[in-house]
């Protein structure tokens, strides 16, 4: 297994990609939070209090409730300037926070504000970049700070509050951020739900509608064959295997080189692959991507081509939803990009009716927003059931949770799987919870084994050295697609170490080593991607240039 030396094999996987899902004082509570909680409740009997009552989530955020916020909903189709206008407000505010669904978007915003001479920190589960004098922050939504007060806040892609697994973080940002102005950007399908939720918060709510800034034309003819691919095309498919198959097929025609973007590539690699595709001077003029490109990103895409309209959602193969199709199609012909008019089509003729119908239909109105208890609540609940492990506590809590009509309880299936393993270790509830919510990819054996090993080592020694499972200096350029996949997994384990180091810093002291090895991983992956397939002489030089970018980041 390359340079990862796992001592014990574990059959169970852990948590899926929770992105930048994190444990913070404000969100999940800490031992300090728990102590406060215990002190508060020491004189009362937990049995008389129903901790599963989640019917008034707006009361969880007293700092935000002290304020009458001006909430502005920026809604409209993709590429209509929603984020642009919200960011303009953020830029001119005295203090502010941007909360986005992706690390790439948080990076983009931090970069943009710093360039505009508005010092802006970057905070994600795996990064903390502090800029001197910064009063602004760009964060991934799970890191949204609900304990400070801001002049202006932006929550991007707010319709994600309906997401089965991550929705609760958007709900938390919506209810919990204390700001004079709160800008929410997203699909109009979320408007009635947000208005309903905010009826009880005493905020002023205003809706601002937007129109698409440049046309998006659904094509009447399918692509038919990859020999019809042109510069600026982006082919969308949903498996890693298909992405590389299509890349090979296109490159075998010796006319185009393809950049690739998909979820399990390191975010920095995704970003540089996108930059390479965007760069007119690069030979990588076609993009093959998964729905990882579907949110908010601005790419120089002329035409989106769906190679399939079906996606495996973890349970079954299903048709793409109207909002997924619109989000992805919306990447073509971005305003002020190289291509002022966007086109969208499918590889196969039989997929065209679904594409056309979806683009003409409004996204279905969102009915409910995600909700999940914080750690303190779970801890208090656990006192009623002292013999339960975390798995049972989560299971019982979710089963018994009482919610109002506007909310659903977050799907914590993946957390339950992780908890089942972590429960076997001699750890307190808070530590177990932390490992359970960490950003480990459940479908990836190496990544899940990495988590288990970190948790085991932590439970034994309270000290986890990276060298226990990883030998620096042994990473190599992958020679095959299997080796590439393995390197992607190793990157995930290193990423996980960095995440844990931000929550248990004394026990995970090798953050810098992990971060530097992560950077090497992504460089080696890019080296492979640069060498893979047919190359023009100038393209061969490109990976080296991207390495320098990576080093200077
Ligand atoms: N008034 C404007 N002046 C200059 N550029 C603009 C303006 N409005 C939008 N843009 C640019 O147009 C592109 C699309 O805008 P933006 O990203 O805000 O769209 P969006 O509605 O948020 O799209 P999505 O739903 O895909 O997130 C961006 O590159 C943005 O910088
Ligand atoms: Mg946007």
From TrEMBL:
Cofactor list: Mg(2+); Mn(2+)
This protein's record includes keyword Transit peptide: yes
Keyword entries, A-Z: ATP-binding, Helicase, Hydrolase, Mitochondrion, Mitochondrion nucleoid, Nucleotide-binding, Nucleus, Transit peptide
GO MF: ATP binding; ATP hydrolysis activity; RNA helicase activity
Keyword Iron assigned: no
EC top class, as a word: hydrolase
Residue ranges crossing the lipid bilayer per the database entry: none
Example GO BP: mitochondrial RNA 3'-end processing
Stored InterPro entries: DEXQc_SUV3, Helicase_ATP-bd, Helicase_C-like, P-loop_NTPase, RNA-DNA_Helicase, SUV3_C, Suv3_C_1, Suv3_DEXQc
E.C. number: 3.6.4.13
Catalytic activity, as annotated: ATP + H2O = ADP + phosphate + H(+)
Record localization: Mitochondrion matrix, Mitochondrion nucleoid; Nucleus
Residue ranges annotated for the Helicase C-terminal domain, each copy included: 192-379
Signal peptide interval: none
Principal subcellular localization: mitochondrion
Superkingdom of this protein's organism: Eukaryota
Assembly: Homodimer; in free form. Component of the mitochondrial degradosome (mtEXO) complex which is a heteropentamer containing 2 copies of SUPV3L1 and 3 copies of PNPT1.
Similarity-based family: Belongs to the DExH box helicase family.
Protein name: RNA helicase
């Amino acid at each position: 297994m390359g340079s990862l030396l796992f001592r014990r094999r574990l059959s169970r996987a852990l948590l899926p990609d929770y992105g930048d899902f994190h444990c913070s004082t404000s969100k999940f509570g800490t031992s300090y939070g728990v102590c406060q909680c215990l002190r508060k409740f020491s004189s009362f009997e937990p049995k008389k209090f129903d901790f599963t009552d989640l019917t008034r989530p707006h009361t969880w955020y007293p700092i935000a409730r002290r304020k009458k916020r001006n909430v502005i909903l920026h809604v409209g189709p993709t590429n209509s300037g929603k984020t642009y206008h919200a960011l303009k407000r953020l830029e001119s505010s005295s203090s502010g926070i941007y909360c986005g669904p992706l690390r790439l978007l948080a990076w983009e915003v931090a970069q943009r504000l710093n360039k505009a001479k508005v010092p802006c920190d970057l905070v994600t589960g795996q990064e903390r970049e502090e800029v001197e004098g910064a009063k602004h922050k760009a964060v991934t939504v799970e890191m949204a700070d609900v304990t400070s007060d801001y002049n202006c806040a932006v929550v991007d892609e707010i319709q994600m509050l309906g997401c089965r697994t991550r929705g609760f973080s958007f709900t938390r940002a919506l209810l919990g951020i204390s700001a004079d102005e709160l800008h929410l950007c997203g699909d109009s399908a979320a408007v009635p739900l947000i208005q309903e939720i905010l009826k009880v918060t005493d905020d002023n709510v205003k809706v601002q509608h937007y129109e698409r800034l440049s046309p998006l034309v659904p094509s009447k003819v399918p692509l038919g064959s990859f020999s019809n691919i042109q510069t600026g095309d982006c082919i969308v498919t949903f498996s890693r295997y298909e992405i590389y198959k299509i890349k090979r097929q296109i490159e075998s025609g010796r006319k185009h080189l393809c950049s690739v973007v998909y979820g399990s590539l390191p975010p920095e690699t995704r970003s540089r692959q996108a930059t390479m595709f965007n760069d007119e001077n690069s030979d990588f003029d076609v993009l093959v991507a998964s729905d990882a490109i579907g949110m908010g990103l601005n790419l120089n895409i002329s035409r989106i081509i769906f190679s399939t309209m079906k996606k495996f959602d973890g349970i079954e193969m299903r048709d793409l939803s109207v909002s997924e199709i619109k989000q992805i199609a919306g990447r073509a012909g971005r305003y002020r990009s190289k291509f002022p008019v966007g086109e969208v089509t499918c590889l196969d003729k039989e997929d065209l009716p679904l594409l056309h119908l979806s683009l003409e239909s409004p996204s279905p109105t969102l009915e409910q927003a995600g909700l999940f208890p914080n750690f303190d609540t779970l801890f208090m609940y656990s006192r009623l059931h002292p013999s339960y492990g975390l798995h049972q506590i989560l299971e019982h809590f979710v089963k018994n949770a009482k919610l109002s009509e506007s909310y659903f309880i977050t799907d914590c299936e993946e957390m339950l799987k992780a908890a089942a393993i972590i429960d076997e270790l001699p750890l307190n509830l808070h530590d177990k919870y932390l490992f359970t919510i960490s950003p480990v990819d459940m479908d990836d054996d190496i990544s899940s084994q990495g988590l288990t090993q970190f948790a085991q080592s932590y439970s034994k020694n309270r000290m986890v050295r990276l060298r226990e499972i990883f030998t620096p200096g042994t990473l190599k350029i992958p020679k095959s697609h299997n080796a590439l996949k393995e390197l992607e997994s190793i990157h995930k384990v290193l990423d996980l170490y960095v995440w844990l180091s931000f929550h248990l810093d004394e026990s995970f002291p090798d953050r810098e080593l992990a971060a530097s090895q992560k950077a090497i991983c992504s460089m080696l992956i890019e080296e492979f991607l640069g060498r893979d397939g047919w190359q023009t002489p100038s393209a061969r030089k490109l990976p080296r240039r991207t390495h320098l970018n990576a080093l200077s980041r």
